[in-house]
Automatic annotation (TrEMBL):
Organism of derivation: marine metagenome
One Pfam family hit: TctB
InterPro entries attached to this UniProt entry: DUF1468 (IPR009936)
Parts of the chain that traverse the membrane: 34-53, 65-83, 89-109, 121-147
Residue stretches making up the DUF1468 domain: 2-144
Keywords in alphabetical order: Membrane, Transmembrane, Transmembrane helix
Protein name, as recorded: DUF1468 domain-containing protein
Amino acid sequence: MIFLGFAFLFYETFNMMKPILPGYPGDAFFPRLAVGYTLIIAALILLRGILLPRFAAAPGEPSHVSVHWLEFLSVAALVLVYAELLPPVGFELTTLGFMLILLVPRFAVQHGLVHSVVKAVALTIPTIIILYGVFALLLGIHLPLLFLPRYIL
């Protein structure tokens, strides 16, 4: 389903405004690039998930592909909540909360709760700064910022 959704998004990029200036890639360039790479990676993951279990199964034994639906649906719900909270709360706090929700349970399996929160925050803050630098400063994409400056210089 996700693969088909990304294929539809790729198709929709062709309905975006055409470039006005010669040599300018146009509004659809970055979305088409991101969705195209995502489609390639999704196809590789899909093929790996279909082909590898068949090769690993013993002859006469059915191959099993397990899908963790609860995990998948919870991450999909988090992405929707992230998209809804981004404008009113701001990029920094929304990304911090989103990444903490995803990282703390993963780290809590190996470490204690306090150590996993500290480790998640230590990874989240540089990630926010890198995303801010790439998207807001270099690419000039408007992000709903709360603390970070919109422009430097």
